[in-house]
Specification:
Layout (H helix, E strand, L loop, with lengths): L15 E4 L4 H17 L7 H23 L5 H21 L1 H6 L6 H8 L1 H4 L4 H14 L31 H31 L7 H27 L4 H24 L17 E5 H7 L2 E3 L4 H6 L6 H6 L8 H14 L5 E3 L2 H17 L10
Parallel strand pairs: 1-2, 3-4
Keywords: Membrane, Transmembrane, Transmembrane helix
Pfam families: FA_desaturase (PF00487)
InterPro entries: FA_desaturase_dom, Fatty_acid_desaturase
Length: 379
């Protein structure tokens, strides 16, 4: 079972890690996790709990849209209620189904992973673009300026001490929540297209016809998404189009705020490192230690919350073992924590989701006022 590993890190001119092979920490942890699954007789892929969650989240997303498309709703408040419920299902799909499937951790069957990965397309985004952004760039280089696409923000947001600072950043801890809420609206409209073209320039999608085919599929999937989530409801519902559009936006505001908050509090936190490569393009660390230095857990004691958000409160375990289904993170977390302590590697965690949000706000304020750093944390 390949788990902790040093991936092919020199991607399109991106940095490499100084320790090219697995460290003693990586080897020890890999053996212990492998032993855990062997001794417990547990498969590292999805279990029945995960399968039931898949059914639930797909139902929460699709059922309200099906009801809206019947044209039987005649009042305004049910429109907003149904769209918001669908938004909760959309967030559940994004955090709990497609995330595991695209990482290949949902099933040992690649076909199952591929088709469940298409649930990303079903909710208006794109699995091919996400795979580059998340699996390749973010998971290899968390918190590395320019390499980690999750911290490459528009000028009005500053998520790294190495990014250029503007005066407006001092207020980002206040207005960032609006942009978090708008994130999935941007995603299903423009962001996938922008990133697709940028990734092509970076050297991805280099096979003959790959970019064109991906673009055509992206357009087709998004057209289908807008057809059943917005256009048909506008046509069939007996009310003004602006009401339906408002409900659609409300759905995305809920989804965007949930997903962005959960993902960002794993890395944009006090105590996280923001390493830079040297002049030779090398980061002075090994891949596994880098994951722990740049990643934080939160709310480890809330089993229901963890189940609902796809185990993303165990971000440390996810970054070290992206090919293990998230339903197992709670069980392997003590092993990771104990091994990290043995090797003197930090293991970051916040006790609750609320405390993590407060720490995230503190970090956003710090990044909004600190001058550009040469190395390490802001300030």
């Amino acid at each position: 079972m390949e788990t902790v590993r040093n991936p092919e890190t020199y991607i399109m001119g991106k940095p490499t890690f100084s320790n090219k092979g697995p460290s003693d920490f990586s080897r020890t942890l890999r053996k212990r996790i492998k032993r855990h699954f062997k001794d417990s007789g547990t498969d590292r892929h999805a279990n029945n709990s995960m399968r039931w969650k898949t059914v639930l989240m797909l139902f929460l997303f699709l059922a309200p849209l099906i009801i809206l498309n019947t044209g039987l709703i005649a009042q305004i408040w049910p429109v907003f209620m149904l769209y918001i419920i669908s938004g909760l299902g959309m967030a559940g799909i994004g955090m709990g189904i497609m995330h595991d499937a695209i990482h290949g951790s949902y099933s040992r069957n690649r076909t199952v992973n591929r088709y469940l990965g298409y649930t990303m397309n079903l909710i208006g985004a794109n699995a091919a673009v996400w795979r580059i952004q998340h699996n390749v760039l973010h998971h290899t280089y968390p918190n590395v300026q320019e390499a980690d696409d999750d911290i490459n923000m528009p000028f009005f947001l500053r998520f790294s001490p190495h990014a250029k600072k503007y005066r407006i950043h001092r207020f980002q801890y206040l207005y960032v929540w609006f942009f978090y809420s708008m994130s999935t609206i941007a995603w299903v409209t423009a962001k996938d297209f922008v990133r697709l073209y940028r990734y092509k320039k970076m050297g991805f999608l280099g096979k003959k016809g790959e970019f064109r085919n991906t673009l055509m599929k992206l357009i087709a999937w998004k057209s289908l998404y807008y057809l059943y989530s917005l256009i048909l409801p506008i046509i069939v519902l007996p009310m003004a189009p602006w009401i339906v559009v408002s409900g659609f936006i409300a759905m995305h505001l809920v989804t965007g705020l949930l997903i962005s908050s959960v993902f960002q509090i794993a890395h944009i936190m006090p105590g996280m490192e923001y390493p830079l490569a040297d002049k030779n393009g090398t980061i002075d660390n090994d891949w596994a230690a880098h994951q722990l230095a740049t990643t934080s857990n939160f709310s480890p004691d809330s089993r229901l919350f963890s189940w609902l958000i796809g185990g993303l409160n165990y971000q440390v375990e996810h970054h070290l073992f992206p090919n293990i289904c998230h339903v197992h993170y709670r069980k392997i977390s003590p092993i990771v924590k104990r091994t990290a302590k043995e090797f003197g590697i930090p293991y970051h965690t916040n006790r609750t989701f609320l405390s993590a949000i407060m720490e995230h706000i503190k970090m956003l304020r710090s990044l909004g006022t600190a001058k550009m750093a040469v190395q390490g944390n802001p300030g």
